[in-house]
Automatic annotation (TrEMBL), chain A:
SUPFAM superfamilies to which the protein is assigned, alphabetical: P-loop containing nucleoside triphosphate hydrolases (SSF52540)
GO molecular function annotations of the record: 3'-5' DNA helicase activity; ATP binding; DNA binding; hydrolase activity
Organism per entry: Lacticaseibacillus chiayiensis
Residue span(s) of domain Helicase ATP-binding: 105-254
Identification of the protein by name: DNA/RNA helicase
């Protein structure tokens, strides 16, 4: 087994039955820097004291606890390439996509970080293919990571199809297997198990929860990198926009791959006091109208408990409905059924706001004024509609009982991007 | 204050009744939505072990315990569902000691009037591994009496089947003298989890064998 670039703990070595640790560099898991403990795996500086006098790092505890008595084993030998990186994808890029792809390639060659600021449905994934193919052909190593498991699940089959002859490792949710492949698809957390291992790290949906507001995950990217980092998002946050002035390369794509503008959301004011036990008649009429146009309907709700409650209400009206939330063990199956149109209405929390592509899908947001929906989240949600070339004008409606800045900002930004 | 479950500002605050009640003043550390993931035990429970059931009758397990002396009349806060399993895994399995304050306000409110609180100790080997005692962590907000000691057993209870658990031999020693024990009229044993009851009944037997004459009941976080 090739452990190149891995950064592992003692229990992980035991689980993988690694006997030859002579080639590993052993470093203490927690070190004292200027009087403060710092975790060498995730770089956070707020360890917690244990009653027996040890300290442990609470930020990365889900990957196995590290205390100041533990060691980390870093395997820094060179990576042995296993795949040839041949591109088995035969589509063509639009001129806009080609330009962005070339700019990314130039940034990576120059060792610069790069931001691809592309509207939802611009075809970001396809733009990556030429650069990744070339790096792997040059025997380099690439990781594609995202803070969202759903995004990784969605990307995995597309990458497997595009790189048919290259082995791909897919890793998320505590599952740990081999480390020997040229292309890794994983959640950002998994990068904590690597140290200076990748020549290119692509971070998809970089502004999504939990990566926004968790500096530890940004550190995970930094310590796993050896070359460039490419950030992909439709809604860059302030930190990324500021980095543009400091030499971050950028490609802007404000047009979808099919060339049609983004659907502009309609804001509909109504009384939502009885939600989720009862839905306003106007909302039900809208859902029925949408279904009559051969579309399916994705309804976003701000609370986990609402997804099932509203699904129940709609089921009683005779609609084929399911509710999903992050706590739902069957959510992958339900999304699959929705995609195959066995379900007409899917009620979901913001977990499906990104990376999900369903064709001919109308989008409604219930109680859009809730604090759960930031402007970035609303833009992402609106971006679920109009993904296919044959129905670019799927309706997007924000149902709300009041206006908020986030609502207006989201609508304004979509109009702005359409105008560019 | 921030919720230790989701790190968002908490929406549960101290109640006025808590402020004036007897006992330590402890703030809630979980927000409403994090707390609602767990199943609080309410309504009818078995009088012997505190498990949730339709009637207040003794469950079949407790009827067996009844033959071996007085029942412990265990009370518990939460049912052992998937989210509680996940919580226990993070606390005891991964060793995330931050979580030890999660239920401190609820625990303190329930045990405010208890006489002598005796925690079930963890094995020295486990303490070394974890760096903390999970039971003392959970109940450390109250005045505890460490009257029991546990000797090493071959395997932890969590890795055994139900039958193996019930056959576990006695491994508790009482550290306190008979005189000191009997200064208390009532002892409440504290543990994190009541599964078969074997551990708690062993602790009771050890206390009785050491000469304790009062009543013994028990309280666990989970049933």
């Amino acid at each position: 087994m090739d452990l190149a670039g891995a950064q592992l703990t003692q229990p992980e070595l035991a689980r993988l039955a690694v006997s030859n640790i002579a080639q590993a560099t052993v470093v203490p898991a927690l070190v004292k820097v200027k009087g403060h403990w710092r975790c060498q795996r995730c770089r956070s500086q707020f360890p917690v004291a244990l009653p027996d006098g040890r300290f442990y790092c609470p930020e990365c505890v889900t990957l196995g606890r590290l205390t100041d008595q533990d060691n980390l084993y870093r395997f820094d030998q060179p990576h042995q390439p296993v795949g040839d990186g041949r591109l088995t994808w035969h589509g063509t890029l639009t001129p806009d996509q080609q330009a962005a792809s070339d700019a990314l390639m130039a940034s990576v060659t120059a060792g610069r970080d790069h931001l691809i600021w592309a509207v939802t449905g611009a075809g970001k994934t396809e733009m990556l293919f030429p650069t990744i193919a070339r790096l792997i052909q040059q025997q380099q190593r690439v990781a594609i990571v995202s803070p969202r498991i759903d995004v990784i699940r969605e990307l995995a089959p597309r990458f497997r199809a595009a790189f048919g002859t290259t082995p791909i490792t897919v890793r998320y949710g505590g599952h740990f297997d081999q480390t020997d492949s040229d292309l890794l698809l994983a959640t950002v957390h998994q990068l904590l198990r690597f140290y200076q291992a990748f020549d290119l790290i692509v971070v998809d949906e970089v502004d999504a929860f939990p990566m926004n507001g968790t500096p530890m995950l940004h550190q995970a990217v930094q310590q796993a990198r050896r070359g460039s980092v490419a950030y992909l998002t439709a809604t860059p946050d302030r930190v990324l926009k500021r980095a543009l002035h400091r030499g971050l390369g950028v490609s802007r794509l404000f047009r979808r791959f099919h060339g049609h503008p983004l659907p502009v959301p309609i804001i509909r004011l109504m009384n939502l006091q009885k939600v989720p036990h009862q839905l306003p008649a106007a909302m039900i009429t809208w859902i029925r109208q949408v279904l009559a146009t051969k579309r399916v309907c994705l309804l976003f709700v701000p609370k986990i408990s609402w997804s099932e409650q509203i699904a129940d209400v709609l089921r009683q009206l005779g609609l084929k409905t399911a509710g999903v939330a992050s706590t739902d063990p069957q959510r992958a199956e339900k999304v699959m059924a929705f995609r195959q149109r066995q379900i007409d209405v899917l009620v979901t929390t913001t977990i499906l706001e990104r990376g999900v592509t369903v064709t001919q899908c109308a989008v409604g947001v219930i109680s859009a004024a809730d604090r759960e929906f930031s402007a970035a989240a609303l833009i992402q949600i609106a971006g679920r509609a109009g993904r296919a070339a044959d129905s670019p004008d799927d309706p997007v409606v924000f149902f709300t009982d009041r206006y908020t800045l986030a609502l207006l900002a989201a609508k304004r930004q979509i109009v702005m991007m359409n105008g560019r | 204050m921030r919720c230790i479950g989701c790190d968002r500002p908490t929406d549960r605050s101290l109640q006025l009744t808590t402020l004036f009640a007897h006992g330590p003043l402890l703030a809630p550390r979980l927000c409403h939505s994090c707390l609602s993931r767990f199943c609080l035990i309410t309504g009818a429970t078995c009088v012997g072990c505190g498990r949730m059931q339709p009637t207040e009758q003794l469950c079949s397990d407790c009827r067996k315990w009844e033959h071996q002396g007085r029942l412990l009349h265990n009370r518990a806060l939460f049912a052992y569902d998937a989210s509680m399993k996940a919580w226990i895994y993070q606390y005891k399995g991964l060793g995330d000691y931050r979580l030890h304050v999660a239920f401190q306000d609820l625990i303190a409110a329930r045990l405010r009037h208890a006489a002598a609180l005796v925690p079930i100790p963890s094995e020295p080997k486990h303490f070394e591994l974890r760096g903390f005692d999970p039971i003392i962590g959970l109940f450390g907000c109250l005045r505890l009496r460490s009257w029991l000691r546990k000797t090493a057993t071959e395997r932890p209870q969590a890795q055994k089947t139900r039958q193996e658990r019930l056959k576990t031999p006695q491994s508790f020693h009482v550290l306190a003298s008979e005189q000191m024990l009997n200064r208390a009229r009532q002892i409440t044993l504290l543990d994190d989890l009541y599964t078969t009851g074997r551990t708690l009944y062993h602790a009771r037997d050890a206390l009785v064998a050491a000469g304790f004459k009062g009543t013994i009941d028990s309280f666990t976080l989970i049933r």
